[in-house]
Amino acid sequence: MSKEAFSEQDWRRLLASLGEDPDRPGLVETPHRVSKAWKHWTSGYDQDPVELLKAFEDGAEQYNELIVVRGIPVYSHCEHHLAPFFGKATVGYLPNGKIVGLSKLTRLVDCFAKRLQVQERMTIQIANALMEVLEPKAVGVVIKCRHLCMESRGIRTPGEETITSAMLGELQPNLALRTEFLALARES
Predict the structure, then answer these.
(1) Which of 12, 104, 166, 185 could form a disulfide with 127 if both were Cys (CB 3.0 to 4.6 A apart)?
(2) Is 145 annotated as a binding residue?
Protein backbone atom coordinates (compact mmCIF):
# COMPACT_ATOMS: atom_id res chain seq x y z
CA MET A 1 0.00 0.00 0.00
CA SER A 2 1.55 3.31 -1.02
CA LYS A 3 1.48 6.09 1.51
CA GLU A 4 0.37 9.35 -0.10
CA ALA A 5 1.23 12.33 2.11
CA PHE A 6 -1.58 14.63 3.15
CA SER A 7 -0.23 18.06 2.28
CA GLU A 8 -0.85 21.54 3.60
CA GLN A 9 -2.75 22.15 0.35
CA ASP A 10 -5.18 19.40 1.40
CA TRP A 11 -5.76 21.18 4.72
CA ARG A 12 -6.40 24.40 2.79
CA ARG A 13 -8.99 22.55 0.68
CA LEU A 14 -10.63 21.22 3.85
CA LEU A 15 -10.93 24.77 5.23
CA ALA A 16 -12.42 26.00 1.96
CA SER A 17 -14.85 23.05 1.87
CA LEU A 18 -16.10 24.11 5.32
CA GLY A 19 -16.92 27.56 3.92
CA GLU A 20 -13.83 29.27 5.29
CA ASP A 21 -11.31 31.47 3.52
CA PRO A 22 -7.92 29.79 4.02
CA ASP A 23 -6.25 33.10 3.04
CA ARG A 24 -7.75 35.14 5.87
CA PRO A 25 -5.19 36.23 8.49
CA GLY A 26 -6.29 33.84 11.24
CA LEU A 27 -6.11 30.81 8.94
CA VAL A 28 -3.07 31.45 6.75
CA GLU A 29 -0.76 29.39 9.00
CA THR A 30 -3.42 26.86 10.04
CA PRO A 31 -2.64 24.25 7.36
CA HIS A 32 1.00 24.19 8.49
CA ARG A 33 0.06 24.01 12.19
CA VAL A 34 -2.55 21.28 11.64
CA SER A 35 -0.18 19.22 9.53
CA LYS A 36 2.47 19.43 12.25
CA ALA A 37 -0.09 18.61 14.96
CA TRP A 38 -1.32 15.47 13.16
CA LYS A 39 2.25 14.27 12.69
CA HIS A 40 2.64 14.51 16.47
CA TRP A 41 -0.78 12.99 17.26
CA THR A 42 0.00 9.95 15.08
CA SER A 43 3.69 9.56 15.91
CA GLY A 44 2.95 6.23 17.61
CA TYR A 45 3.02 4.53 14.22
CA ASP A 46 6.76 5.29 14.06
CA GLN A 47 7.47 3.76 17.48
CA ASP A 48 8.25 0.12 18.19
CA PRO A 49 6.78 -1.02 21.52
CA VAL A 50 9.46 -3.72 21.80
CA GLU A 51 12.18 -1.06 21.64
CA LEU A 52 10.41 0.98 24.32
CA LEU A 53 10.32 -1.96 26.73
CA LYS A 54 13.96 -2.96 26.84
CA ALA A 55 14.38 -4.68 30.19
CA PHE A 56 17.39 -4.12 32.40
CA GLU A 57 19.12 -6.05 35.11
CA ASP A 58 20.23 -4.17 38.19
CA GLY A 59 19.36 -6.52 41.02
CA ALA A 60 15.70 -5.51 41.11
CA GLU A 61 14.74 -8.55 39.03
CA GLN A 62 14.31 -10.35 42.39
CA TYR A 63 11.26 -8.16 43.00
CA ASN A 64 8.13 -10.32 42.93
CA GLU A 65 5.21 -8.04 43.84
CA LEU A 66 2.97 -5.94 41.62
CA ILE A 67 4.47 -2.87 39.98
CA VAL A 68 1.74 -0.36 39.15
CA VAL A 69 1.88 3.09 37.55
CA ARG A 70 -1.39 4.99 37.61
CA GLY A 71 -2.48 8.38 36.35
CA ILE A 72 -0.71 7.94 33.01
CA PRO A 73 -2.13 10.60 30.64
CA VAL A 74 -3.92 9.31 27.55
CA TYR A 75 -4.49 11.60 24.54
CA SER A 76 -5.72 9.83 21.42
CA HIS A 77 -8.09 10.16 18.46
CA CYS A 78 -10.88 7.76 17.66
CA GLU A 79 -10.64 6.11 14.29
CA HIS A 80 -14.35 6.57 13.63
CA HIS A 81 -14.57 10.38 13.71
CA LEU A 82 -10.94 11.49 14.24
CA ALA A 83 -12.28 13.12 17.42
CA PRO A 84 -10.08 13.29 20.50
CA PHE A 85 -10.50 11.05 23.49
CA PHE A 86 -8.52 11.55 26.65
CA GLY A 87 -8.14 10.32 30.18
CA LYS A 88 -5.83 8.26 32.33
CA ALA A 89 -4.36 4.78 32.27
CA THR A 90 -3.15 2.45 34.99
CA VAL A 91 -0.61 -0.16 33.94
CA GLY A 92 0.77 -2.86 36.19
CA TYR A 93 2.62 -6.14 36.02
CA LEU A 94 3.90 -8.90 38.25
CA PRO A 95 7.50 -9.41 37.17
CA ASN A 96 9.07 -12.75 36.42
CA GLY A 97 12.74 -11.74 36.46
CA LYS A 98 12.52 -8.79 34.04
CA ILE A 99 11.68 -5.21 34.92
CA VAL A 100 11.62 -1.96 32.97
CA GLY A 101 12.06 1.64 33.98
CA LEU A 102 8.76 3.07 35.20
CA SER A 103 8.78 5.77 32.52
CA LYS A 104 8.69 2.99 29.90
CA LEU A 105 5.13 2.16 30.92
CA THR A 106 4.11 5.77 30.27
CA ARG A 107 5.91 5.69 26.92
CA LEU A 108 4.16 2.45 26.00
CA VAL A 109 0.74 3.98 26.66
CA ASP A 110 1.73 7.06 24.62
CA CYS A 111 2.97 4.89 21.73
CA PHE A 112 -0.41 3.21 21.31
CA ALA A 113 -2.42 6.37 22.10
CA LYS A 114 -0.66 8.25 19.29
CA ARG A 115 -2.39 6.16 16.65
CA LEU A 116 -5.94 6.25 15.40
CA GLN A 117 -7.63 4.07 17.97
CA VAL A 118 -10.58 2.61 19.72
CA GLN A 119 -10.09 2.46 23.46
CA GLU A 120 -10.81 -1.26 23.69
CA ARG A 121 -8.07 -2.18 21.20
CA MET A 122 -5.57 0.24 22.74
CA THR A 123 -6.11 -1.38 26.16
CA ILE A 124 -5.32 -4.88 24.93
CA GLN A 125 -2.43 -3.68 22.74
CA ILE A 126 -0.71 -2.21 25.80
CA ALA A 127 -1.32 -5.37 27.83
CA ASN A 128 -0.17 -7.71 25.05
CA ALA A 129 3.01 -5.71 24.40
CA LEU A 130 3.96 -5.91 28.08
CA MET A 131 3.14 -9.62 28.22
CA GLU A 132 5.11 -10.45 25.07
CA VAL A 133 8.23 -8.43 25.84
CA LEU A 134 8.63 -8.79 29.62
CA GLU A 135 7.04 -12.24 29.97
CA PRO A 136 5.72 -11.32 33.43
CA LYS A 137 3.49 -13.50 35.58
CA ALA A 138 0.62 -11.04 35.10
CA VAL A 139 -0.32 -7.78 33.38
CA GLY A 140 -3.19 -5.43 34.15
CA VAL A 141 -4.29 -2.33 32.25
CA VAL A 142 -7.23 -0.07 33.13
CA ILE A 143 -8.05 2.97 30.99
CA LYS A 144 -10.68 5.64 31.73
CA CYS A 145 -11.38 8.17 28.97
CA ARG A 146 -13.83 10.81 27.89
CA HIS A 147 -14.68 10.69 24.19
CA LEU A 148 -15.46 13.93 22.36
CA CYS A 149 -17.29 11.99 19.64
CA MET A 150 -19.90 11.19 22.32
CA GLU A 151 -19.72 14.51 24.18
CA SER A 152 -19.88 16.96 21.29
CA ARG A 153 -22.05 15.18 18.70
CA GLY A 154 -24.56 12.37 18.50
CA ILE A 155 -25.80 11.48 21.96
CA ARG A 156 -24.02 14.47 23.59
CA THR A 157 -23.21 13.09 27.01
CA PRO A 158 -20.68 15.44 28.63
CA GLY A 159 -18.50 14.01 31.36
CA GLU A 160 -19.19 10.32 30.75
CA GLU A 161 -16.16 8.09 31.12
CA THR A 162 -15.55 4.85 29.31
CA ILE A 163 -13.56 2.31 31.32
CA THR A 164 -11.78 -0.60 29.70
CA SER A 165 -9.52 -3.22 31.26
CA ALA A 166 -7.28 -6.07 30.27
CA MET A 167 -6.13 -8.70 32.76
CA LEU A 168 -3.60 -11.22 31.48
CA GLY A 169 -1.64 -14.09 32.99
CA GLU A 170 -2.23 -14.80 36.69
CA LEU A 171 -4.64 -11.85 36.97
CA GLN A 172 -7.28 -13.94 35.19
CA PRO A 173 -7.58 -16.95 37.51
CA ASN A 174 -6.16 -15.45 40.73
CA LEU A 175 -8.97 -13.46 42.36
CA ALA A 176 -6.78 -12.22 45.24
CA LEU A 177 -4.14 -10.86 42.84
CA ARG A 178 -6.83 -9.32 40.64
CA THR A 179 -8.43 -7.65 43.68
CA GLU A 180 -5.03 -6.30 44.79
CA PHE A 181 -4.32 -4.87 41.32
CA LEU A 182 -7.74 -3.21 41.07
CA ALA A 183 -7.34 -1.76 44.58
CA LEU A 184 -3.95 -0.29 43.62
CA ALA A 185 -5.41 1.01 40.35
CA ARG A 186 -8.37 2.69 42.06
CA GLU A 187 -8.12 6.44 42.45
CA SER A 188 -8.10 7.64 46.04
Answers:
(1) 166
(2) no
